[in-house]
Amino acid sequence: MGGVVFVWTTLVVARGLLGGVNPRFHWLVSAVAVIFIAPFLLRARCATFAPGLLPAWLLAVSVLLSSVGSPDPLYGLAEAGKLGIMLVVTLTLFVTHSRYAHYAFRAFVFSAYLNVVLLLAGFLGVATLSREMMLRRWGTLLDYPGSLWRVGILSVGWSAYLLLARDKPVQRLTLLAASLALIYFDGSRTGFLLLCLVAVPFLLVVRVVEGRSLVSRLATVGAAFVLTLALVAGWNWAASQHSASQASGSLGRIAQLASSLKLEGATGLAAADPVRVRMLQTGLAALREAGVVGSGIETTRAGTEEGLFVLHMTYFQVLGDLGLLGLVAYLWLTLGWLLWLPRAWANIRGMVSAPRRGLYYNAILLLFLFALAALFHPLSTEWSEWITFVIPYALFWEAVRATPLAEQANVAP
Prior knowledge:
By secondary structure, the chain is mostly helical. It is built from 19 helices and four strands.
């Protein structure tokens, strides 16, 4: 069972396989996985009211209801079914049997290493394995630009925490370097900003709270001060780059944005990313016109010079597509766990094993990142998107239920 979960997770995290192999590849893989684990599924028992079950049902129902009056009701029905399978069934299984989420996390780590190997092959000239697919943005055979950073961010918190805890430092440093490389070469502004403005501050907060002595806490505060200065200096440097070609990767795209803002203010933002600005305007219009039930999934689109685009802002998109009912369901599902955060945090702090603490802290970080990344990306009904929520969510609830001194033999690689 654990091996099947590992292989399945490795494959569904790879978004590039959807375009490179088959758009339904992840669903085909999932069907095969179900066949292999059928004996377990026939014996499995799930909690009647597992965490996340009610909002998952509500989200699927909101998609179903909105599809009634949509231009393509059958498409809405199919999307509701997909969300039901991923969130009502799979999420409940992982939350109830969370030990298998550990195998999935190992697959996250393995995927980071695998993509770095593919990147290195591309740097050496093997273009079939990885290449610069867009200006200053690299992709691999498994993950294209825009998805590569999502693989890297999955293990950043875990590897960085254990490196600071001096747990197998060489191994943790290697993984951290691999994860950061994926984020950088992806060229995603979202990934870079979430790393700098969310992941790093989160880890600093953890270190301050966990500080065993005054010296340790002061050192962490000092590191935070140095980091702040570095970010300010980096932004000023980026704003001074008059040519985006002076920087590469994520830094190049951040430099372009910073330079436009410095030279032209809000007008510069529109010039740097006119499509996203138009999406924001459409989203605000959807906010003013929102009803209880929306117009149908993927019907709220922004008209641009390049054509119609689904809003790259999940909250506005859900409000327009699924209405207030869908927005309540989505917020309940993705943010409702915050009510239990104090209990989970207290349990984690009492754990003896550093890898176990790091695993759960990383799960909390990934839940924050999932919610914040939704500010810049559209709602997805694919495995590659929701697996990055399902696994951290299952691990979070394991932390809520945990006995502080109880240790598990297999918590992480």
